[in-house]
Amino acid sequence: MSEGGGRGLRAVALGGGHGLHATLTALRLLGDLVDDITAVVTVADDGGSSGRLRRELGSLPPGDLRMALCALAAPLTGVDAVAGGSPDDLWVRVVQHRFGGTGALAGHAVGNLVLAGLMDVLGDAVAALAEMGRLLGAHGRVLPMSCDPLTIEAQVTGLDDDQGAVRLIRGQVAVASTPGRVRRVWLRPERPTPCPEAVAAVRDADVVLLGPGSWFTSVLPHLLVPGLGEALTSTTARRVVVLNLAPQPGETAGFSPEQHLDVLSQHAPALRVDAVLADETAVPVPDRLRRAARTMLVADGTVHLAPVAADDPTAPRHDPAALAAALRPVLVRPDRGAAAGAGERRT
């Protein structure tokens, strides 16, 4: 499938958790433009049900993988609430269901147990994800960024009386929830083996989307996996960075939109992107974002501002339908005949 051949785009979305869920749902809503979707998911989670299964079985943490599968399987009705599974899709609801109580199963998502079981029986994470995708009727595929569970480590300041003192924090949960300021992250093992299918998907894609999501623990790790990071910097795909709606308590507390781009550039200085997409209300000074983006945008790259936030007073999150509308004019190269979307705003 190629952009100029009258067939749909091959899109690859990288991330984890609810941010990736929103991106995948948005891509599905663009079915007239995108007909091949691959999710590449982080595998460093060490908390909750995923962390328990990882420690007990030595398997990949299944939670973010499960979320991505459900995003590709849930009916595209009521997409504002699709993270929990639409009421008319029993299997998605079951896979997302968490056991209550106080026993050994308390807190485990059914889908986490199923995925862990499939990986144990098949001995192949990619095959297990494909099998669960078939069970759910997923419209696309889900791949891990590595077939081995990884650990995130970070340099953090602001945890001592000496605010400049640097401390080492280990583990995704610890990094995501630190009250300090994250300066740099890396992976253990230092040079993990990438998932070959994920590398191939990025290289063969027409469009690659990075973000939104927990910046240091769900977005940046993809760029730190040898092979996958190189594929992201060398692919001929149109690369789009989708920024978060707000700083995340803990790992990016106090970050401006441009600081998100700064740390992305620091961790992957060779990365160049075609577009940066952000919510118009989340960027108080668009000129600052534009200046920060210059270091990583290609020559004709642009910053796009559009309303992509859901009307949710409890927590900032992307609205998949609004995100789809904002992505439409961004995904196709201008020289391939893409029409500018109505109401598109560029800075």
From TrEMBL:
Keyword line: Cytoplasm
GO biological process, one term: regulation of cell shape
Entry's localization field: Cytoplasm
Protein's UniProt keywords contain Cell membrane: no
Gene3D superfamilies membership: CofD-like domains
SUPFAM superfamilies, A to Z: CofD-like (SSF142338)
GO CC terms, sorted: cytoplasm
Summary of the function given for this chain in its UniProt record: Required for morphogenesis under gluconeogenic growth conditions.
Protein family per UniProt: Belongs to the gluconeogenesis factor family.
Alphabetical list of HAMAP family matching this protein: Gluconeogen_factor
Protein name listed in UniProt: Putative gluconeogenesis factor
Annotated source species: Pseudonocardia sulfidoxydans NBRC 16205
